[in-house]
Amino acid sequence: MYNQIDSNKRKTVILMTLFIVFVLFIGWLYGQITNTGYSGLTLALIISLVMTFFSYFAGDKAALATSGARPIAKEDNPYVYRLVENLCITAGLPLPKIYLINDPTINAFATGRDPSHASLAITQGAIDNLENEELEGVIAHELSHVKNYDIRLMMVVIILVGIIALVSDWLMRGFFWGKRSERERNQLSAILMIIGIVLAILSPLIAQLIQLAISRKREFLADADGALLTRYPAGLANALKKIGLANKLPLKTANNATAHLYIANPFGQSQKFLSNLFSTHPPLEERIAKLTQMA
Questions:
Q1: Is residue 121 located within the same domain as residue 28?
Q2: Do 51 and 95 fall within a single domain?
Q3: Among 99, 122, 133, 197, which is disulfide-ready with 235 (CB 3.0 to 4.6 Å)?
Q4: CA 243, CA 180: separation in Å to the nearest integer?
């Protein structure tokens, strides 16, 4: 388990580094083509930070509202409340606010900028269809996201994706609407023009793929850390098996903005390569195999 956690942390650092280098390169290229230096990248960074400032402090409330989650107290569901409470004590975490999503699919997600401002939402389908050890594994997985500050990490990634999308758009506009005489004076104009067009078209897609890759790595990390918390990897593995069999239809309130938060893809499971490539979650079979190896 410790090896799995260390491996996923290293891979996440590598992906984040590549992401930042990619952003810096796009910004440099924009300055070369438009002769504006780094002003475009600076403006994109400011816009992204301002937009993210609000999502940082209110993003969890928006995610809970869009999912249709309603808060529950201990007397509403003592069974779920005790499971969360016991796992929080074991993990050394504050008790998050607990929410219920009235949906028959098996799923759950955690949100919040840090452990002191965390919330945990569980579908009714998960409570009804999972055994005690399985539901405990799902909850442990989500608490691991809270413990590892995964929500904050993904927020940084979303900022970078936003910067790339903005700069890519400006890159294309700068190429077509910039002063041709300025570009002609640049000895590297021909190469930069070709690179600029290609990156302006492909960079948003590349950024999205990197974001999804980081999201998938964090899922593997939460699986390993959750198994370490319960000391019973089979519990989460069995829960994922049930999710694969039961979740044929999407969650009623599923949307692209919050899909990465859930323990499993809220749009249903797919066996197609392209669907898995653009999924926020790794294939269930891979996750189950890794958990089985830990048992």
A1: no
A2: no
A3: 133
A4: 57
- Per-residue pLDDT tens for 110-157? 998 888 999 999 999 999 999 999 999 999 999 999 988 887 777 666
Is there a domain that residue 209 lies in?
A: no
Q: Cα separation of 10 and 75, whole Å?
A: 42
Q: 143 and 74, same structural domain?
A: yes
285 is an active site residue: no
Catalytic residue selected from 75, 142, 182, 219: 142
Which residue carries 């910039």 as its tokens? 178
CA distances from 88 to 18, 91, 139, 140 (A): 34, 5, 10, 9
* Partners of 119 in beta bridges: 97, 111
Instruction: Write down the pLDDT at residue 74.
Output: 93
Q: What range defines the domain where residue 8 resides? A: 2-61+164-204
The structural domain count of the chain equals 2
pLDDT > 70 in the chain, percent: 68
